[in-house]
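Why does residue order matter? Because the sequence determines the fold. Keep that principle in mind as you read this record.
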Amino acid sequence: MDAALAARWGLTESLLLLGAVVLLAVLLQGWWRTRRARPLAAPADAAPSQSAGERVEPSMGADPDADPSANAEAGDTLPDLPGLRPAGRRSARLDALIDALVPLVLDGPISGDSLLAHQPGTRRAGSKPFYIEGLDAETGEWDSPSPGCRYREVQAGVQMVSRGGPLNEIEYSEFVQKVQAFADAIGATPNFPDMLEVVDEARKLDAATNPLDAQLTLTLRSNSVAWSLGYIQQCAARHGFVAGTVPGRMVVPAPEEGAPPVLSLAVDSQAAMAALGADAQAAAVRQFTLSLDVPQTAQAAEPFPAWHRAANALADDMDAVVVDDHGTPLPLAAFASIAQELEVLYGQLEALELPAGSAAARRLFS
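Structure:
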């Protein structure tokens, strides 16, 4: 009887010891994962850097080792919005306000040729674009990898929000897989932010910016006879419109090269396709739309007045009436009300450090 009791007691001790070992292993694994997901800490003796709430702009010929806050205006800080930005980093394209950044720790400088040779074939994670940049060893500026250059730092970043919505877990996982494979190929160690934190930041950013995504569209409707596509193109050309890349679409191009168009004019796609391969006079059209994508053009370019003037000028030239989406004529007072609302919207975009027409706003609202 005593021997059986002793055997049971020995078994109990063994099970308790085994459970303690398993629990310790689980705790160590959790600690290691948390440590890997944490951004790299700056050295204790490093120079003071910007706080997590400050926007880091690309270097424009400035000393790359200088304190980035030296030329900042007083109070020039970011509101309480998401941003996973390494302190003191300047970037050519990546922006920690809208991108989740991943530093890739190198053993030493690396050539642009090597970076280009191992980049992922497609730099998209689901619907979100991601970018890879290097800190040029000679210029001290961030740039896309180029042949013949050497880079002392490399980083990747995935866009957290677009008009398709915020970055989700599946998209972030795809991004991590592609960047990990790239890092392995170049012998770098990626420092990934925690997935749940990134996805949460993306949702917050989407909630803050989605109400500011204004795209204004009005319709010009004929008062009498139908128009041919050629007639619409002729009238629109007199007011600065040029042919777009899509049939039936014309645009007022931006002053700067490569920027999105200021205004877009679109004819029904079926009518536009009917005119292809035949005389443009063959397609009969009774209405077309005139659109302004507010976040894509700087307020200083006065896109709203241009939209209003173009609508009135085309209506006068073509004997048309300007109506809203419901076919209701738009009086002058309606434009005045829209202008007031836009002033508020422009101010809100500025407060979020996403001014209309900026590179970050154009990427986010796309």
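The chain has two domains: 99-210, 213-364.
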